[in-house]
Amino acid sequence: DPARTMRRMIGGLQTPGDQNAALRMLTPGPEGLIDRLPEPDALPAWITQDELDHYINEFTRTGFTGGLNWYRNFDRNWETTSNLAGATIVVPSLFIAGTADPVLSFTRTDRVSEVITGPYREVMIEGAGHWLQQERPDEVNAILLEFFEAVTW
Q1: Is this model's pTM higher than 0.90 or not?
Q2: Is-annotated flag, keyword Transcription (predicted)?
Q3: In degrees rounded to 5, what are phi and psi of residue 125?
Q4: Contact residues for 39 (Cβ-Cβ < 8 A; gap 6+)
Q5: How far, in Å, are 70, 81, 89, 117, 144 from residue 86 at the CA level?
Q6: What is the three-state SS of 62-90?
Q7: What's the start-to-end Cα distance of the chain, in Å?
C-alpha cells in the first residue's frame, strides 16, 4: 500500500519524541519494516497533502523496485568495491544532517578522518530531522552554495 508506506516513511520515521523509530524499523522481528513504524497523527509541517499525494501516485504507478534495489544490492556494492579497501576520500567533502535525525543514533561521524583525508566540513542543522532538504531547503541550499564556492577553482 503506497499511501500507508509513504505516510509512515515520511511521518513515522521521525515521530516527535520517538528517537527509536528508525532503530525499530531496522530491528529484525516478525513484523515488516513499514509495520514497525508508527502511523503519524498528522503530516509534518514541511510537506503538504498534495506533495504527499504526488509521491503516492508515482509509487502506485511505478512501484518501489527502483528505490529498493539500492538496498537489495548493498552487499554486492561492497564486493565490487573491495579493491578500494583502505582507500580514502581526498576531494573536498561535506556532511549535512539535522540534530533531530533519528538515523544519527547509529551513524558514526567521530571516525570520519579514517576515510576522508581531504578537506571535510560537517554541518548540523539544529532541530532538523531526516528529510533535511525538504524540512530546511533554504538552509541546505545556503550551506551547499557556500561549500561549492569554497571548492571552486
Answers
A1: no
A2: no
A3: -95, 115
A4: 4, 7, 8, 11, 12
A5: 23, 11, 10, 12, 28
A6: HCCHHHHHHHHCHHHHHHHCHHHCCCCEC
A7: 48
Let me know the angle formed at the C-alpha of 65 by 60 and 66, rounded to the nearest 5 degrees: 100
User: Residue 99 corresponds to which cell in the numbers above?
Assistant: 540534530
In 4-153 the beta strands, taken as DSSP E runs, fall at 93-98, 120-125
Phi, psi of 135 (to 5 degrees): -70, -40
Q: Would you call 94 helix, strand, or coil by DSSP?
A: strand
Q: What is the pLDDT of residues 49-102, one digit of tens each?
A: 999 999 999 999 999 998 889 888 888 988 999 999 999 999 999 999 999 888
Tell me which residue has cell 537489495: 72
Q: Left, alpha or beta for 152 (phi > 0: left; psi -120 to 50: alpha)? A: beta
